Sequence to fold (571 residues):
Amino acid sequence: MFGLIGHLTSLEHAQLVARDLGYPEYADQGLDFWCSAPPQIVDKIKVTSITGQQIEGQYVESCFLPEMLANRRIKAATRKIVNAMAHAQKHGINITALGGFSSIIFENFNLNQITQVRNIKLEFERFTTGNTHTAYIISRQVEQASKELGIELSKATVAICGATGDIGSAVCRWLNERTDVAEMLLIARDRDRLQSLQEELGRGKIMGLEEALPLADIVVWVASMPKGVEIDSTVLKQPCLLIDGGYPKNLGTKIQHPGVYVLNGGIVEHSLDIDWKIMSIVNMDVPARQLFACFAESMLLEFEKWYTNFSWGRNQITVAKMEQIGEVSLKHGFRPLLSF
Amino acid sequence: MPQLEASAALDFHSENYKDAYSRINAIVIEGEQEAYENYIQLAKLLPEHEEELIRLSKMEGRHKKGFEACGRNLQVTPDMEFAREFFAKLHQNFQDALAEGKVVTCLLIQALIIECFAIAAYNIYIPVADDFARKITEGVVKDEYSHLNFGEEWLKANFEASKEELEAANKQNLPIVWQMLNQVADDAHVLAMEKDALVEDFMIAYGEALSNIGFTTRDIMRMSAYGLAAA
Fold:
């Protein structure tokens, strides 16, 4: 049994979904209510691999909302994540992906120090951030979508915004080792981390966002922020491939400029329909087939019975591990989303 | 990403803390006393479980003594009058149900609502308690799970016959729990126990109990949030 811990994108979205699903007790409530709401298993999932193997999973709604971070309800935000993890464990789920902000909150607030939740001792080996698969999929999107747009990586400049994060640094490693990309621009807030990344890669230019954008043929957006960021699309090159690996995905609706191609990053398509309701709720274009790569990672771990926290900690994703998860991703019928 | 603010160290001997503690400690003592009496009375309605219920009752009596010691340790006199008033409505509803022989309602009030309320409060209290009280509370909370389990098991075995009465008893009593929580929110805050955490932990414990009894997720979300918005 695999699990997915997810959350909705905003209070308004949560109210809408609660109404749609027929939970009026939750639909009309403000942020205070959601800060007190317990985790719930709201969807049962069946996935079939192209090998014919079938697995079952459960979707745990953590009731976390990004507004909790914006309104400094930090304790509530962290509680949502550990409570959802305890809930998943209590329900006997072998491997659970921490989707959306869940893994970011876990890392940022050092929730690995919390091992006891009520009468449950959290077993971290039952959880994965899913970041290895996400980083693999984004890297493959860079390679494959650039080819479709006629951008040659050997002549291209790739700007990675959020380069020092878990996913960002892994994408940098992949591009460095597995491609002949001409130039990498490293963008992040923390100067020290940027420098150690640059040292590790032995290349890459450290730059500010505004300075980097006009130079980039490809922009990989993997910064984690509770509020979106405005990008001035008029300064971008044409063509420019913009891979939006943030959450929630909103660059596509904000940036509509000829020659700028926005691709939803870290999204996979499965070859067969998945029996679930939850992806239509998070507004995927093809809800039965498209999903977050981090969620797909827990499915892959379940298919392969790799009951281990495959992606865990910060900045520990190696190219070898990306290749390992990439191999089983292909084997079971997942592929990177490539439609703009 | 915003940062978590370091919480200020609690001064367990400050007047402010002791004043709030005099009410919270009293509530806990009164809660354990009422639980002690309620299980004895339940034994009359469920004679086949008398031995088990008397055992649970005795446990509650021991808990009460433990919490009295916590108050003495901080040199706090519990405000028992406040506590009796605090439990008055739930107490009355239990007594009314008992008089009518309504086992299901009695179990919902004592073995589910009060136990879940206690489990939530104790779990939130443990990380912010003084050393003496922490040890006592850790021991108590383990016992409370077994009391919750008694109610769950009985109601699970009699689920179909109990369902309607459980729904009605939930409607009657859950709004009272929210009022009780609101009434102590300020005092609990002084003890570094946040109201939204208390509500969440109550809903988790109560939701799990309802799930074990046989209710669906949909029922649980409806029942466990009943009356919260109006509170």
